[in-house]
Amino acid sequence: MSKLHVKKGDLVQVIAGKNKGAKGRVIATHPGDERVVVEGVNMITKHGKETHQGPRGAKTGGVQTMEGPIHVSNVKKLKDDKPADKKADDKKADETGEDS
């Protein structure tokens, strides 16, 4: 199993394939397959059959559109515009020698 350069929640851009240039957040990672699922990228359709099994009754059938996995080498991690984590800010204040 290999380590991926992106993780769930990261902002990425697709750099190769039919969705080249698309940006989105990582929804899921599959390290064993070296694949990631990015929201709004590689949309696939799945056809489901209506079933009457299961603990809660019928499962509705029909066509569903969902994101498919793409190879991790086809995405590039982007800088996120989220604020820096609080621990880094606290450490910076401690280094200046000021009292709180």
TrEMBL record:
<feature type="domain" description="KOW">
    <location>
        <begin position="5"/>
        <end position="32"/>
    </location>
</feature>
<comment type="function">
    <text>One of the proteins that surrounds the polypeptide exit tunnel on the outside of the subunit.</text>
</comment>
<dbReference type="InterPro" id="IPR005824">
    <property type="entry name" value="KOW"/>
</dbReference>
<dbReference type="InterPro" id="IPR003256">
    <property type="entry name" value="Ribosomal_uL24"/>
</dbReference>
<keyword id="KW-0689">Ribosomal protein</keyword>
<dbReference type="InterPro" id="IPR041988">
    <property type="entry name" value="Ribosomal_uL24_KOW"/>
</dbReference>
<feature type="region of interest" description="Disordered">
    <location>
        <begin position="46"/>
        <end position="100"/>
    </location>
</feature>
<dbReference type="InterPro" id="IPR005825">
    <property type="entry name" value="Ribosomal_uL24_CS"/>
</dbReference>
<dbReference type="Pfam" id="PF17136">
    <property type="entry name" value="ribosomal_L24"/>
</dbReference>
<comment type="function">
    <text>One of two assembly initiator proteins, it binds directly to the 5'-end of the 23S rRNA, where it nucleates assembly of the 50S subunit.</text>
</comment>
<dbReference type="Pfam" id="PF00467">
    <property type="entry name" value="KOW"/>
</dbReference>
<keyword id="KW-0694">RNA-binding</keyword>
<comment type="subunit">
    <text>Part of the 50S ribosomal subunit.</text>
</comment>
<dbReference type="GO" id="GO:0005840">
    <property type="term" value="C:ribosome"/>
</dbReference>
<feature type="compositionally biased region" description="Basic and acidic residues">
    <location>
        <begin position="77"/>
        <end position="100"/>
    </location>
</feature>
<keyword id="KW-0699">rRNA-binding</keyword>
<dbReference type="InterPro" id="IPR014722">
    <property type="entry name" value="Rib_uL2_dom2"/>
</dbReference>
<protein>
    <recommendedName>
        <fullName>Large ribosomal subunit protein uL24</fullName>
    </recommendedName>
</protein>
<dbReference type="InterPro" id="IPR008991">
    <property type="entry name" value="Translation_prot_SH3-like_sf"/>
</dbReference>
<keyword id="KW-0687">Ribonucleoprotein</keyword>
<comment type="similarity">
    <text>Belongs to the universal ribosomal protein uL24 family.</text>
</comment>
<dbReference type="InterPro" id="IPR057264">
    <property type="entry name" value="Ribosomal_uL24_C"/>
</dbReference>
